Amino acid sequence: MTFGGFAARFALAAVCALMTVAPAQARFWQCAPYAREVSGIQIFGNANTWWSQAAGKYERGSAPKVGAVLSFRSTGKMRLGHVATVAAIVSDREVLLNHANWSRRGGIEYTARAVDVSAAGDWSEVKVWYGPQGGLGTTAYPTNGFIYADGAPKSDQFEDEPKLPATQFASVAAGTGRMIGVRD
User: Residue 163 pLDDT more than 70?
Assistant: First the structure.
C-alpha cells in the first residue's frame, strides 16, 4: 500500500469517527420541545396543535407577557406552525422572542425581535427577525395568540443562555443593537 492510499484510508476512518462523536450538550432543537422546556407549559405535539390543546388547560389571550408562548398558525411554508417564548416586552407592538428552529435549522435564537403588524394591534399577525436576512423578514405570519405559563411548572434556564443586561436591552429596544445568539 502506498503512503497516499494509507493517508486516504486514515482520513476516511477519522472522518467517520468524528461524525459519531458529538458534545454532550449538542442537541437539534425543534420549536415545540424547546418552548415546552423553557416555558414549563406541558403541551405535546406539533406547534400547530398547541393553541387548541391549551384550551381549558392554560389561559390564552392576545396580550404578550414574559414567559408566555406565542402560537403561530400553520401556513403553506410553515405547515406545522411555530411556537416561541416571550423573553421581553419592548413596547405594546414589539417583543423579544427566544425560540428554536427559525433562522437556523435546529438552532436556538435568543432575543429575536417580533413586531405586531396586525391592523387591529391584537398580535394576530407578526413579522419576526430572520438571521440570514439580518432584519425583519418580509413575511407577516398569522398567529393564534399567547398561551400563558401562569401555573405551569418552571424549568430551569439553560446554563449558557445569555442574560440580557439592562444596558444591552435598551440598545436592542432602541434598535441600535442586535442580541441574537444561536446555539447548536
Answer: no
